[in-house]
Amino acid sequence: MVCWCVAGKPDKPRSIVTEATQIRPETTETTPNVTLRYHVAMPNPESHLFEVRLLVDRWHGALLDLKFPVWTPGSYLVREYAKHLQDFTATTSEGKPLVWHKVSKHHWQIDTDGANAIVVSYRLFANELTVRTNHLDSTHGYFNGAATFFYIPGFEDRSIEVEIDCPHPNWQIATTLPPILERSNTFCAADFDTLVDSPFEVGLQERREFEVLGKPHELVVWGRGNADLDRIVADLDKIVQVEANLFDGLPFDRYLFLLHLSASGYGGLEHKESCSLNYPRLGFQNPEKYDRFMQLAAHEFFHLWNVKRIRPKALECFDYDAENYTPSLWFCEGVTSYYDMLIPLWAKVYDFKAFSKILAKEISRFLATPGRFVQPLSESSWDAWIKLYRRDANSDNSQMSYYLKGELVSLMLDLTIRQQSNNKRSIDDVMRYMWQKFGKREIGYTPKQLQEAFEWASGANLDDFFDRYINGTEELPLAEYLEPFGLQLKSDTSKQPPFFGVRVGNGNSNRTTIVQFVETDSPAQKTGLNSGDEMLAIDGFRVGADQLDERLKDYQPGDTIAVSVFHQDELKTVSVTLAEPRPKTYRVVTVQNPTPAQAQNFQAWLGIELKE
User: Fold this and answer.
1) Residue 36 has pLDDT above 90, yes or no
2) Going edge to edge, which strands form the sheet with 107-111?
3) Could you give phi then psi for residue 190, rounded to 5 degrees?
4) How far is CA 571 from CA 510, 535, 565, in A?
5) Which residues, listed in sequence order, are joined to residue 117 by a DSSP beta bridge?
């Protein structure tokens, strides 16, 4: 029996930081019975430090390699989780220090000195409250597997025990990992992928349990706010049923919704049997904000099929050391975003009026992004690792979100399939096809196989569509696709000011007006205005961030205005000739006097009568 705790304090471990040559990890053949056990404690939650201990037992190699993941599935950016790790030590089970060194930024190597039981201890700073990081304070501890645990190369398929040491008796533990019944607060992950896919929420919680199709679901909430949990549970029940009906069942035994109520955070991260949601604590009484939350929940729940099980070939086996490239994130996220608009409508969580406003807002965002003419959708998926989460002042000019364009391309593909098949098929059939062929067996698909699925459903060759709208940068003819379904786009420029080409906001002091974005080829860019400039005046009169549009309405297209700014602390005044107004927002409205075909298409698509 190997003890976890060592009496007394061991000597300071000997560490050697060198440019060591990576040595081949020990194989499973040399250490066939190795067991892995983690212990996670948080004795001083106010310090934001998790104290983690790993016991590697029955090890027979001269070296032990440990690697810390650099990213987590579902969030496609190398986040360097090892940057939060400190106080690394390695000892034998008797407390004898072992020599170790770092091979790379996230790779540690330990000289075992013949020991077959090695104890690795470290602390993790956790003060970033997002769905993909760790957070620890006086009320809870939340941690994700990729941001918390090492893996041993070659041993990713081994089961891993995790014991939680709660700092207070009233703290509860929420996770989807099965408990080890004979050991208090101890859970077992079947392998490292499962551990990464099973976040822990430990602390003060509110809980609601509900059952859908005979399977238990639970909502666990941390934080205070104005959420009506009973209403949320009732609407989650409806959403789960709609999605389950789409895929003919639920592919899990139990599901957990983890909800963090924060000051202003927003986000979600999907897992096979759970999701983490972060939402503003006071964002549940306003109808539009509540609808947005239900979209978020519908989105993350849909992911348990699309991307957690139906996933690209590049994500079939995760490489936690580096980027995992695929051109198909537009399908993983874009299709899911398209469904997160539809599912609450189908579930009657909101009505068509709310749906049309949500769709119009997405179309308005898309048509206001110049980068749609620069970056193809497939490239946006590929470049997620360097662009999507690392926005800069030129992002809107040079890139396109695969979430945003992906959902609108998915809309067009859905309407294409419905038109081609006289509403006998839809994108629902594509999802069921992908589920049966790839998702159930968790076999990754290629971009070619993905296109073939859409072609099967539509009964048509889609090379031209994919070349133009997924691999190319042609404008999306959204109005043309919506019209056969009884909808049209409306915009009004009569109340819009002449086009200037900048977005401004308040500076840190709220007394300055800062240029945040300058559109490519706009009047402002042509005269040399830059993001970061402090805007002072137009034609000699001070202008604030909230006054710019109203001031511009005093002018006509073709007028030239004098714009005074501080550029890198140097006062400059430039002459800008204003252009014709551009629409800022669009509305999605029903057509007047719809034809019977339009009414039939509308009802088949959205499940409601057009006349309603």
Assistant:
1) yes
2) 15-17, 100-104, 107-111, 63-67
3) -65, -30
4) 20, 10, 6
5) 57
Structure-token pair, residue 121? 């201890």
Phi (first) and psi of residue 383, to 5 degrees: -90, 15
CA distance 497 to 550: 7
DSSP string, 556-567: -TT-EEEEEEEE
Between the two ends of the chain, the Cα-to-Cα distance in Å is 71
Phi (first) and psi of residue 108, to 5 degrees: -110, 150
Around 510, how many Cα atoms within 13 Å sit in the side-chain half-sphere?
0
Q: What is the DSSP string of 216-258?
A: EEEEEEES--S--HHHHHHHHHHHHHHHHHHHTS-SSS-EEEE
Q: Is the dihedral of CA 3, 4, 7, 10 positive or negative?
A: positive
The set of residues, in sequence order, having a beta carbon less than 8 Å from that of 480 and lying 6+ positions away, is none
Homologous superfamily, domain 211-351: Neutral Protease Domain 2 (1.10.390.10)
Lowest mean pLDDT: which of 15-19, 317-321, 369-373, 421-425?
15-19
Residue keyed to tokens 């949990």 = 229
HEC secondary structure over 4-53? CCCCCCCCCCCEEECCCCCCCCCCCCCCCCCEEEEEEECCCHHHCEEEEE
| Strand bridging mode 49-57 / 117-125 | antiparallel
Q: Report how far apart, in Å, the C-alpha atoms of 71 and of each of 322, 448, 479 are.
A: 8, 27, 39
Locate the domains of the chain by residue range: 15-203, 211-351, 502-577
Residue 559 and residue 67: Cα distance in Å, rounded?
62
Query: Pick from 129, 106, 105: which is nearest to 48 by CA?
Result: 129
Residues 14 and 97: their CA atoms lie apart, in Å, by: 7
Q: For residue 528, how many other CB atoms are within 10 A of its CB?
A: 13
Give the whole-angstrom CA distance, residue 582 versus residue 368. Answer: 9
Question: Residue 30's pLDDT is what?
Answer: 56
What is the pLDDT confidence band of residue 31, given thresholds at 50, 70 and 90?
low
Contacts of 3 (CB under 8 A, 6+ apart): 93
**Could you say which architecture CATH assigns to the domain 502-577?**
Roll (2.30)
- Per the DSSP assignment, residues forming a β-bridge with 141 are 136, 202
Q: Matching CATH topology for 15-203 and 211-351?
A: no
Beta-carbon contacts of 286 under 8 Å, excluding residues fewer than 6 positions away, are none
β pairing state of 215-222 and 534-538: unpaired
Q: Can you tell me which residue has the tokens 């909430």?
A: 221
Extract the tokens encoding 523.
Answer: 């009047």
- Angstrom distance (rounded) from CA 329 to CA 75: 11
73, two tokens: 């599935």
Give me the helix-helix angle, 229-247 and 336-346, nearest 10°: 110
DSSP type of residue 512: S
SS3 state at 274: strand
Q: Which of 379, 298, 406 is nearest to 345 (CA)?
A: 298
Strand partners, 261: 279
- What are the tens digits of pLDDT across the range 172-195? 999 999 999 989 999 999 999 999
User: Hey, is 40 helix, strand or coil?
Assistant: strand
Q: Which CATH number fits domain 15-203: 3.40.50.1100, 2.60.40.3650, 1.10.10.410, 3.40.50.970?
A: 2.60.40.3650
Rounded to an integer, the average pLDDT of 288-301 is 98
Residue 448 exposure: Cα atoms within 13 Å on the Cβ side = 0
